[in-house]
Amino acid sequence: MLTFRQFITEAARSNKPLKPGITIDAKDHPAYRNRTAKNVGLLSADDVDEAIKTHPESHAKQQQGNEPEQDSIIGARTNLKVRDSTKKKLGHSVLVASIHQKAEEKQRAANRKKGLAVKPTPGATSHERNTPVCTGGNVLGYRQAVTVDNAHFNVSQGAREKLAKTSAEGRKRDADAKAAGITLKRPSAKGSKTIMASIDGRYQRIKPEHQQFHGVELHMNPVKHHTFVDSDNNAVHSADRCVYANGRCFAQGKITYHSEESMPKKGGDAPTASKVLKSKDDLKSEEASETYTTKNDKGTTRPIPEHS
Description:
By secondary structure, this protein is an alpha+beta fold. The chain has one domain (18-307). Helices cover 24% and strands 21% of the residues. Strands 1, 2, 3, 4, 5, 7, 8, 9 and 10 form a nine-stranded antiparallel sheet that branches. A two-stranded antiparallel sheet has the order 6-11. The chain starts with a helix and ends with a strand.
């Protein structure tokens, strides 16, 4: 059993960012690609407006016209409510990025507008500690593309564990039912959703037409991974910049991988393919990897999900 002094020491250590692993320039990565807006299927402003209007709650939020301040800490993810409503009402799914902001960041912005003193953001902020900013954050609005600097790829391990197990159990039920010649009715997806993962960092006010989509594409499939990964399942910690568009995530500048020390602990016993990159020589191109891609069997992009 730890003494009180040891307990305090360990608690202090746990509050510090753990040292990550290997860093590589995205342009030196074998999976680096140049892409155009057309390559990534970037939505037009009209497409976004049409999609948002299919979901009244999201449309009301968008009408408020909130724009995060430059360099304020936000979290980006796919709005699955809009995805589901567009599939139902338009006949196809539309993926728009949802922007969340921590309450304290929102207060900072309000104080600036009032001319009040604003304390500087701490050097080691919450988005650097494997805690998704989207969890408990305020939804500010929706975009076809979002760029953040000092990007951290965060996953709520408890939410991921629940989703991974639910998916595994569902597949087993389906397989057993199919073997028995039974058709199962899928449960309704209605109800509140819990944020599972988000791309967090300092918001960059960049117009859609000026967004750049070069870089290394990262993935996050909660059934297979408990972290964001590259095409060869190497767990990614952070990047100088990340652009998120159409459910896809492109890391730019310096990309830092997880070390054994910084690798997040799983929330349970659900399996994971996420692994620590041991050497730069182990990096592979997408074509050379036994890769998990962002495409499902129908060729549709898989978004960073929530779970209900």
